[in-house]
Amino acid sequence: MKTTKILLITLLGTLLATQSAMAAKKVVRWKLAETWPTNFPVFGDTTKNMAKMVKEMSDGRFIIQVHSRNKHKAPLGVFDMVKAGQYQMGHSAAYYWKGKDINTMFFTTMPFGMIAPESYAWFYYGGGMELMEKVFARHNMLSFPGGNTGNQMGGWFKKEINSLADLKGLKMRIPGFAGEVLAELGAKPTNIPAGELYTALERNTIDALEWVGPSLDLRMGFHKIAPFYYTGWHEPAAELHFMVNQRAYKRLPKDLQEILKVAMKASAYDMYAKSVHESGKNLATMSKEYPNIKIKTFPEDVMVALRKANEKLIGEFEKKDPLTKEIIESQRKYLKQVRAWTEISDQAYLNSAK
Amino acid sequence: MKTTKILLITLLGTLLATQSAMAAKKVVRWKLAETWPTNFPVFGDTTKNMAKMVKEMSDGRFIIQVHSRNKHKAPLGVFDMVKAGQYQMGHSAAYYWKGKDINTMFFTTMPFGMIAPESYAWFYYGGGMELMEKVFARHNMLSFPGGNTGNQMGGWFKKEINSLADLKGLKMRIPGFAGEVLAELGAKPTNIPAGELYTALERNTIDALEWVGPSLDLRMGFHKIAPFYYTGWHEPAAELHFMVNQRAYKRLPKDLQEILKVAMKASAYDMYAKSVHESGKNLATMSKEYPNIKIKTFPEDVMVALRKANEKLIGEFEKKDPLTKEIIESQRKYLKQVRAWTEISDQAYLNSAK
Q1: What residues of B are in contact with residue A110 (Cβ under 8 Å)?
Q2: Which letter, b or e, does each residue of B322-333 get, where b requires 16 or more Cβ atoms within 10 Å of its Cβ?
Q3: CATH of A155-234+291-320, one of 3.40.50.10350, 1.20.1250.20, 2.30.36.70, 3.40.190.10
Q4: What residues of chain A, 142 to 181, have a C-beta less than 8 Å from chain B?
Q5: Cα–chain-centroid distance for residue A110?
Q6: A28-147+239-277 in CATH: which number?
Q7: Which residues in chain B have their CB less than 8 angstroms from residue A262's CB?
Q8: 3-state class of A234 per DSSP?
Q9: Same topology for domains A28-147+239-277 and A155-234+291-320, yes or no?
Q10: Which pLDDT tens digits describe chain A residue by residue (354 residues)?
């Protein structure tokens, strides 16, 4: 009888200890709000890829459900929803939030800025992550690179741009900061919802537009109605971003924090590789179906003027906030250092090894 | 008394069930053999980074111990040790194994081949991984991208190369396939151990050598004794690789398999970003300390002859094995498609947005 009782107590103790260890096995369920519509190519693949890695690496202990804009109806409300904790995380582009905080603008891409490999080097080894952390901590969020589109094309134009004069009065869909730079040169930038772009271009409501590049442009069909496809200057490497609510992140066990971080990182890099792949594939399709697409680069005087306007506007930002100045200076200094390398490596190779 | 017994049995049953679920919590211990010496920069950071991610994501259930060449004494025995299961995994460069299997040679980099973003696109979205899998399955191994050096420099030369004639009889340390290409042009390629390279160059035992690029060249000091630093043609994006013993991999629980795969992928991409960063940083240091470094590109006739020799040698491989042909054709076709995109994106941007 006494033995049985001792055994009982021992067993009970062991069971409690074991079950307490098992507590880590309970399932964490998160929701992610993305700015994109359901099944949006490349961008939408990134969140699916990330959620799948998290689920498999955690053996089903961490499930992230992705809500597209079709579900949450607030494509540009993702920032506020993650900040408030309504969603534990989001996937969007940091420069969409420049109206809320100008410092978010610098973590997507900048005109005449870094290309993707340079940008990843800056984020992970050149101080970029630390600066992004500072900016988003002010909003109780963490922010991580969320996938690169690669170099974006300058856009589809109905008429050739032969000089600065051709930009005067040009009605172009080009949102954000790049639009402001173009406006300095006399263009009339506008923003038009994606669904109305084709018709606007066809009916000459606009003379030109920029979207992304072949990876996403093909399905939009712009190449059928605007033959001049200009090379890029304004978004040399647009990096999307993951936002994570700070409190939600802190409540995760350490291993799930690490699983989340590595899955975000790997899926972001994957998106860059996928963007390169889709761009090559779709450019080949476009060129085959529409051999009349004319790939052009803006003449030198236009490029020089764009760069000058860009530097003027950036110079104005620098005066507004010490953190803005810190970010701009970090990027400027880093670009100078890393570009010297790009010039003698990939650029020299691409130019010489034809 | 009866109640106590029933309770006892119930408790025992629950405990056994709980502990069986806990069995997944046992620690898996692996050893990785890397070709590099202890604390080798960039390359060695990759294995440490991977092992750390695996440990943290698995909450300590999967520990990978890294053995450098200083420990296992067989830098070029990594392939055999992983194949035999002596090590569960390895980190090296696939083209080191061309003597064992010619098809391994194509998964590092090829002269006049893809740059890093193109290469990652080919691996993950263009069929490269599937081909690498086929090659390594013949050796009971899995193989994964293991980190990119970025574009490697053409090397340090004591004299300027002004024409094809300057290559005749040139004694150059340049191992592997690139050495064979140079030999076609009359150069005398040799291989010399890393520790003897500086002295060999200083004493004119060799006239030139290639190593990696600023990321690893700085510490070697070649810039102090050979002023001409040539841009690259022969290794536009050297991707290291992880090898995993197939049986060891199959024995892993599903979640640890996924953790390993994602950690290898993220650490490989990370190495590419780090290579870009270190190259920029070290190039700046070199240029400051030794302003006399002359960055040069081979004249056009040399580049054309190198390309021709390269194509001739690759053509010979194609005839040897249907799988070799399949790999070469996949790369050739993919490069053509993706390069058309690189030309109108990063290359056009770098050339126009100065």
Answers
A1: none
A2: ebbeebbebbee
A3: 3.40.190.10
A4: 150-151, 153
A5: 12
A6: 3.40.190.170
A7: 53, 57, 262-263, 266
A8: coil
A9: yes
A10: 466 666 656 655 555 555 555 555 799 999 999 999 999 999 999 999 999 999 999 999 999 999 999 999 999 999 999 999 999 999 999 999 999 999 999 999 999 999 999 999 999 999 999 999 999 999 999 999 999 999 999 999 999 999 999 999 999 999 889 999 999 999 999 988 888 999 999 999 999 999 999 999 999 999 999 999 999 999 999 999 999 999 999 999 999 999 999 999 999 999 999 999 999 999 999 999 888 999 999 999 999 999 999 999 999 999 989 999 999 999 999 999 999 999 999 999 999 987
User: d(Cα B284, Cα A337) in Å, to the nearest integer?
Assistant: 7
pTM of structure: 0.93
CATH fold, domain B155-236+293-349, is D-Maltodextrin-Binding Protein; domain 2 (3.40.190)
ipTM over 0.90: yes
Domain boundaries, chain B: 27-148+238-277, 155-236+293-349
User: Which residue blocks in B112-213 are alpha helix, DSSP H?
Assistant: 116-125, 128-137, 176-184, 197-202
Question: Which of B231, B273, B334 comes nearest A352 by C-beta?
Answer: B231
A10 touches B: beta carbon within 8 Å: no
Asked if A112 and A119 count as a contact pair (C-beta separation under 8 A), the reply is no
* Residues in CB range of B161: below 8 A, 6 or more apart: B167, B228, B230, B296, B298, B299, B302
